[in-house]
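Researcher: Sit down with what I've pasted below and flag anything odd:
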Amino acid sequence: MIGSTRKAVLKTAGDLIDGDRARDYGDAYEMHSRIAAGWSQVLGVDVKAHEVALCMAWLKVSRLVESPGHMDSYIDAAAYMALAAEIQQRDSA
């Protein structure tokens, strides 16, 4: 069963960002861009959309330090990393 957990985490993360989360929150690029604009105002520095996703992944990792058995945080961290890569690639195009 080696690899079954990693496959389940990645599949669930993909299903969430392409399914329920996309329906609930709209386009991920637009959402992260909107968050970046708000954070930029609050922090007084330029925050990019992919950096929002990286920060959210870091939040999930930080939570896992305290609660390493919380599977949802692994799933969410994987999802945020995938979104960060997608957003950064879109901005670079």
Q: What stands out?
A: The chain has a mean pLDDT of 94. The chain is about 85% helix and 0% strand. The chain has one domain: 4-92.
